[in-house]
Amino acid sequence: MSAADTHAADQPACPLASGDGLLPDELRAWMVLLAATGTVEQRLRSVVKETLDVSHDEFLILCLLAGQPHTGLRMTRVADLLGRPKTRLTYQIACLQRAGLVTRTSVCGDKRGVQVALTDKARELLRAASARLAGTVRQALADSMGPEQRAAMCALVPDLDDEAR
After folding, report:
1. Which pTM does this prediction carry?
2. Long-range contacts for 85-92 (Cβ within 8 Å, ≥24 apart)?
3. What mean pLDDT is predicted for residues 68-73?
4. Going from the N-terminus, what domains does the chain have, and what CATH number goes with each?
């Protein structure tokens, strides 16, 4: 038995993995997804701090910007996508800018608009850390989702069960 199997065996069964018909499959799957997300976030916090020296919330900003062209995104769009208050985001962006990980520029033709983009330094840090971060996510999901949870997730992601085999 591997360490992951032992850890998963120590976990109580997810109370939402099998239903009594009260909740539809989609809601049960959503609850399983929330539990798995919580486990992933908890595990990532220390790895992100150790490998990138940023907070988990700052890491989410970096990940969002990593999927964008070099021009980046408007700060209002980042706030919307992450569900963060704009004032909190302004503070986090300032921290990332001081660390040399993002740039802020004014949006041409809009004196209030601010565009945020990753620096080359941030792109290199993310490249170097990506394997470890992805491994942390995979392991957290493996530890938190047994066969019942994967079956429940199939209500949201039908191909998940096929990929697990």
Report:
1. 0.75
2. 88/57, 89/61, 92/55, 92/57, 92/58, 92/61
3. 87
4. 3-164 (1.10.10.10)
